[in-house]
Amino acid sequence: MRIGRQQERRERQELQDQHGQQVRLGKALVGGGCVAALGFAPSAALPASGVSGTVVAKGTSTGKLKVKTPKGRTDVTFRTITVQPGGSTGWHTHSGQVIAVVKSGTLTRTLDDCSVEVMAEGTSFIEPSGARHPHIGRNLGTEPVVLWVTYLLPEGSALSDDADAVDCGAKK
Fold this sequence. Notes:
This protein is an alpha+beta fold. It is 25% helix and 30% strand. The protein has a five-stranded mixed β-sheet, with no helix packed on it. A three-stranded antiparallel β-sheet has the order 6-5-8, with no helix packed on it.
């Protein structure tokens, strides 16, 4: 009889121990999940560490910028473009939007409606997408124009496509 009770106590203790382990395991899993979730949430409590950055160009728009990404997958390309004095981009279009910052120099742009925009150092602009929006950029100054450009194009698209010149004399 005594052996039976001791056996019973041991079995009961094992069950309690197993239940306690399950409870501790459950708490650990919940706690671990919370910690993992915090890794995805922004936290002001964790300072940056081992990170550095360099501003390569900054420009201010003359008005509100309306950014539209292409339908489907988007190729994002960053590029530096230098236009020498007297040089031009040639008439062209883009299959997606282009965001540009004039790092140095002054770029003179002629747009599809024959309007002319003079973009000085420190300005930014968006070029619209599509064949209906041909444009050209010219350097009419004496120093190189340096642009920092971000292309938001449909996957696999060329950065630009040649376009026919707009006959601005006929539009006046």
